[in-house]
Fold this sequence. Notes:
It is built from five helices and five strands, in the order βββααβααβα. The protein is of the alpha+beta class. The chain has two domains: 63 residues; 78 residues, Winged helix-like DNA-binding domain superfamily/Winged helix DNA-binding domain (Arc Repressor Mutant, subunit A, Orthogonal Bundle), CATH 1.10.10. Strands 1-2-3 form a three-stranded antiparallel sheet, covered by helices on one side. Strand 2 and strand 3 form a beta hairpin. The chain is globular. The structure holds a DNA duplex.
Amino acid sequence: MKTNLIELTVSTPNGKFIARYSEKGLAELNFPGAKAPVAPKRSEGGPVPSNISKWHRATQSALEKILAGGEPRELPPLDWAGATDFQKSVWRQLLKISGGKTRSYGEIARAIGKPKAVRAVGGACGANPIPVLVPCHRVLAANNKLGGFSGGLDWKRQLLAKEGVKF
DNA sequence: GTCACCTTAGAAG
DNA sequence: CTTCTAAGGTGAC
């Protein structure tokens, strides 16, 4: 079923991110500049539920923290409904990467018990609906090569630079 | 069913 | 050192 997502924006020094929440938590986060598939239509529909309002505050502060090169104090609940088990496993590993550190696709693959699924890990990262908070940008190719990034390789470089990662 | 993807280790030239 | 190949998971066509 098409869950009614509530769309809110997060203003940062880097631009306005777009966050979408379901009843269960943050379901999606988009980079500034990404074309908005739907118009923001939440205010007329009704008030934003208080729990979502609270999550949004957490999202905002976590995002700002990361963009400043730090680690978020706390994250809002993430709604991974629709994701496969494989993807959830990968994203769980990503959440364990602390600021300024990086892992390779191979390491992630190994961590979830499928050392040969390195390309699948790349696929899961690309399918990540919540970039930045789920730090898919901290995953580099082997030998500290940048690798790719569907949301714009530019963001990956910038985020890593803020965290002091060199390569 | 086929193909492309945010990959990588290893074998061959 | 450079080039080529095979291998996982998933979604688009």
